[in-house]
Amino acid sequence: MTQTAPAQHSSADALLHDNFALGGKVALVTGASAGIGAHLAETLALAGAEVVLTARRRDKLEGVRAAIEARGGTAHVAEMDVTDSAAVAAVFDALGERHGRLDILLNNSGVAVTARAAAMAEADWDRVLDTNLKGAFLVSRAAVPLLRAGQGTIVNIASILGLGVLKGVAAYAASKAGLIQLTKAMALELARDDIRVNAIAPGYIATDINGAFFATEAGKRVIAAIPLRRLGETRDLEGALLLLAGPAGRFMTGTTLVVDGGHRLAMG
Ligand SMILES: NC(=O)c1ccc[n+]([C@@H]2O[C@H](COP(=O)([O-])OP(=O)(O)OC[C@H]3O[C@@H](n4cnc5c(N)ncnc54)[C@H](OP(=O)(O)O)[C@@H]3O)[C@@H](O)[C@H]2O)c1
């Protein structure tokens, strides 16, 4: 039976709590070692979830865990390459033994390659598609039995490049468009299991991956094309995540929330 909210909230605090608190929830975040994933893992932890931080670089994950614990949150670290189905299975086996269920899966791992399709190396195409699309499939598939044990939810980090295109991002755009379709397909297939599946399509968010580019003249032109005239910050994604991952999103599935300062509108 789908989660329902109380018909009335006893106070303003209760309104926020009933919609956004994640106390007692277990969350797993992929790509939690840096950038958006590290920030959103901390967001989930501050909202009360116990968070499993996964990525390939254990030292970075340990740093994120320390930052979360310093702020009173609870986090665990597990090395996981999302392109390696055996590694994925091992992490979910361990999660099943420890918690017996999963409430929130945040598929955030991603890589980008800048090259036009006609000049793209096959290995680059494979790396982008394997990480951004196949990785999300492998992790989601492994998570479903544990998500079924609760009223689980999946949030996929897509991109506005999954909705519109620019030159030089063919593999990335194809992977994110595929991820948005995977979101819809899994939402349809898993609704009767009370598992909701949604996506966030961020515009350009300032992270280590793109800081150098946005300091260039070309980067400044991209910023000037964003209607709100700035890059996003990782904290700009907190609201969409809490909406989709928490009780407030209880009637949302198969949707993609665009968080981009209006950039998609200006892409044509
Ligand atoms: N920044 C933006 O402007 C922007 C805009 C729209 C969407 N996004 C999406 O947001 C997500 C995060 O991007 P970001 O900007 O935070 O990038 P980032 O700082 O480079 O972080 C990427 C994360 O993905 C992980 N990762 C890469 N390959 C992996 C693999 N094979 N297995 C497991 N983890 C892997 C990395 O961890 P390890 O290297 O430790 O494995 C890292 O934690 C991506 O899906 C990206 O496409 C970003």
Poorly predicted residue ranges: none
Identify the CATH architecture. Answer: 3-Layer(aba) Sandwich
Arithmetic mean pLDDT: 95
- Anisotropy-based shape: globular
CATH class placement = Alpha Beta
The helix/strand order is HEHEHEHEHEHEHHHEH
- End-to-end Cα distance, whole Å, is 41 Å
- Distinct ligand kinds: NADP nicotinamide-adenine-dinucleotide phosphate
Strand order of the largest sheet: 3-2-1-4-5-6-7
Our Rg estimate from Cα atoms comes to: 18 Å
Given helix and strand content, the structural type is alpha/beta
Q: How many helix segments?
A: 10
- Total number of beta strands: 7
Query: Share of helix among residues?
Result: 40-55%
Number of domains: 1
Mind summarizing the main beta sheet?
Answer: 7 strands, parallel
Within CATH, the superfamily carries the name NAD(P)-binding Rossmann-like Domain
CATH topology: Rossmann fold
Q: What proportion of the residues form beta strands (DSSP E)?
A: 5-15%
